Amino acid sequence: MAQTGQLEGTVTDEKGKKIEYINVLxxxxxxxxxxxKNGKFHFDNVPTGPQTVKFSSFxxxxxxxxxxxxxxxxxxxxxxxxxxxxxxxxxxxxxxAETSYKNTSSFIGTKSSTPIxxxxxxxxxxxxxxxxxxxxxxxxxxxxxxxGVNQFTFYNDITIRGHRIKGQDISGNLVNGMRAxxxxxxxxxxxxxxxxxxxxxxxxxxxxxxxxxGTINRVTKKPLTESRQSITxxxxxxxxxxxxxxxxxxxxxxxxLLYRLNLGYENSGNFRDLQYDKNFVVxxxxxxxxxxxxxxxxxxxxxxxxxxxxxxxxxFGDGNLYSVPTTKALNAANDYLKEESVNATISLRxxxxxxxxxxxxxxxxxxxxxxxxxxSNNKYAALGDGSLDPEKVEMxxxxxxxxxxxxxxNNYFNYNFNTGSVSHKMLLGYDYFQQVLHPxxxxxxxxxYLLADGSGATNSYNPANKDQYALDADGNPIPVxxxxxxxxxxxxxxxxxxxxxxxxxxxAQSQLYSNGIYIQEQxxxxxxxxxxxxxxxxxxxxxxxxxxxxxxxxxxxxxxxxGLVYELNTNINLYGTYVQGYQPQTASVINDPLAGxxxxxxxxxxxxxxxxxxxFEGRLSASVALYYLTEKGxxxxxxxxxxxxxxxxxxxxVSQGFELDLAGKITDNWSLVANYSFNExxxxxxDDENLIGxxxxxxxxxxxxxxxxxxxxxxxxxxxxxxxxxxxxxxxxGSLGSTAEPPVFPxxxxxxxxxxxxxxxxxxxxxxxxxxxxxxWVGGYDYLRAFPGAPRNVMTTISYVF
Length: 802
Prior knowledge:
This protein has four helices and 49 strands. Helix content is 2%, strand content 56%. The strands form ten sheets. It has a 22-stranded antiparallel β-barrel. The chain is mainly beta.
């Protein structure tokens, strides 16, 4: 019988502080562990004889020790690690070791692994652990946990500090720091996501084209050096059924080849009529670590989605949000939305010398859309005398197919050196981005009213020319697509689309691309850190791509960034930042004669000060931020009756406010997330005096959230836990400018709760969302497109880790 012994010890830093999440590996075996909050580790059944133990972490220098294991005895080894260069993983190749609501480091703020405390800009995040505890499955489910971030609609559509971030838009959505094409219609899934993070304010100095409010980055789960496997299944309200799998570990004994495989399947309904979601996610990732100097990663995410597009709730024309059930959607039973996307990323890091490393990342992103929908024509039904029927909605119907692809190529050097007592971290890089709308993009559309002579249809009804229209027995114009009667319980039936009159729209092939050159310096002078960044951006739209009329529209910008961080004490860092932002208007808008362009690019400036701190021996993080953010050049619909496509450009928007965020553990078994934001986001300059001083759409002045989880660790109820949360949002405006008084969506306060039971590797949990069954609206455009939140619902989740 093989002889074995035990190994245990403690890991501290140079100041004697216990270090959590240090990887401890016994080379040549399958034994590996992470240190706990007291810096301790323990191994049983260690083979006797000489062994090599390796201690490693992204934030500390790796260390190797030779030890002797004796049969039946415990060998003690205590290790002190030195702080290392955090750029060891300047490309995010290996998975995050932390397993709490707190995330210590991020790549989004500096393009290198930097403690969030040392980034001179506000960064919010939600970890996979918090998402699991809240039973969240989509990005929109978790944004309430980040101050200043709110939903805009049902869609992949978010507001950050009053500025909108949309899918199918390259200015605010990243995956692993790269621009991936995403659906606008469907919220982004997170079963394969390690964390969702937001850098608030413009990030143009690093990424070029960027929204003024902020940038959302979804970090996919990466391989770990230790074996972990889990299966999770959820059933619950609205016929929800989900199964998730997460498998990771080494593929070779020497841990030079690692893997991770995330699988996700969902088949669920919705509280909204006719709505459903069938989603399938496959996300394999491989890391090759041939040496300490070279690391290579391949990351693939395939997603397939089947459902219907929900354009929101329509209510009676008097604007009473309670006049129509929040369950009622405008779809027909034969509508569908099918989407498919693939993201493939290759990341390489190579260290030439102790201070010089090179990083290269390439991402290919494909997206296809196949849509058939009935939706409102954003009007109530026209009557013969020119008035509107407040109980019927004018409809349109579309069949559309489109496909896009994105190519990202990012290369940069990191050079770390010292000049006297000053340490420097230099970043020099070049990136290229290209997006193409492929041939075949087209749409057939039916809308408007039939003409009396049988020659076709027109998009709108004019009672002054009543005789030109086909009229029914009551003298009302006959619509091409039958109106949706909000009082009819059978209005969602199958529609005979063969009887409609269609017009055809061709989405001409298009291409846009950008080239960026950037440099960044992070200098540390005692307790002061200085960040200086500069980017030269060259952005080009290609109109009439691959045709004789091909035309290039180019916009350039020089974008600076300045930041300071001062270590007040071991717990608290103070920071200040100044950043400029740049967001070009798309060429289709700039050159659309109906839109009224050309229009200038959006430009923005952020001035921000704040503090970041760690408490309870680093388990809990806290941050506060005060900001003043300006944006010039936003486009709004001019609401010109004769030209519904006409846009106008505002002179200046201002967002100013205060944010507070807490995340982490107070004790080993008590976790907490809390945030509050005050955001005054107003239009300061506009040709439409009605808009001046208005709060921007779907931007609450006040919003807050708290979530806490407690697990009993001892006694008869060991393993039993409780979760409790609450969030509130004050009233918000819908679309501005369409009426003298914009639509208002009321404030709301929600309570969520959860019950957990954990026994060894098994956990069962029940999440009760909207416990008090409050009727509420998460956002909206107007009273034909309001977006209600879900009523009370219950989800039960079973997880097994092995």
